[in-house]
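Might you be able to review the protein record set out just below?
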Amino acid sequence: MQNHNPWDPQTYASAAIDAETRELNQSIIKAMSAARPGHELTPEESRAGRARGRGPMGPIVYSEMAKTRTIASPAGPLTLRTFTPQKVEGIYFHIHGGGWVVGSADGQDMLLESIAKNCNLAVVSVEYRLAPEHPYPAGPDDCEAAALWVTQNAKREYGSERIFIGGESAGGHLSAVTIMRMRDRHGYTGFAGANLVYGVFDLGLTPSAANWGTEPLILPTPTMQWCIDHFVTRDKVRLPDVSPLYADASNLPPALFTVGTQDLLRDDTLFMYARWIAGGNKAELAVYPGGPHGFTLLQTQLAKDGRARCEAFLRG
């Protein structure tokens, strides 16, 4: 596993991108340039395309290890997708990505199965409500309810109260929001760690997100704005409960922040890492040359390195 120094300017230079990553990025840009832009699709069309395995992430593969269960929440029954290894040494509460509009708890089974087996963690992934049918605060409310259930039932269900939280993209955003809600609304500051993978932390758009433009490397600026506009009205984007970059950053768990240099959300990770540290919390920053948005879900050496670093953190 190759580690890159996030404080070395050369990490962000084009020359640092390996040949495999460079070639894949170009193939993604070519393929996405030939398709309808994401921001021109309806949510239903976007979801249908993902269900059919279209796009760089490929077809969805389901795990035989996964089980589903339903818990009660203030908004009604809430579905959890769980992975329980033979030896349980903790719990990983996972929140999936998809721009608050697309995605599902069963959309990254193999990633979660690997975490369960390699980290000896019981994985619990929440099927939160999606926008625009259920805009803010529905998704965060569901994640809060599921997190509260996990913290209250971890010992009885899994024999451990060592609980990690994390997710990718919008899942990284919802993880940060959930951590802060659990602290502020329930007095819970016991998460063992937060695995925040190329999350969105400023829905008003950080410089890298605002200035990326239309280059279709997974997630261009118009598609990012499409996601945000479906999720929340623009007058609310700087509320701390919507954009955790602006929230109180004290009393937060140790965190690993992961991002690629070719991700329009790069600044979200860099800025949130700085806020986490400035709040007096422990944090690690892992930056991957050339990694596009969603790179840890791809099948490259860079992706394998990113997943291995996340698993090492979760073994903690």
Summary: The two ends are 17 Å apart (CA to CA).
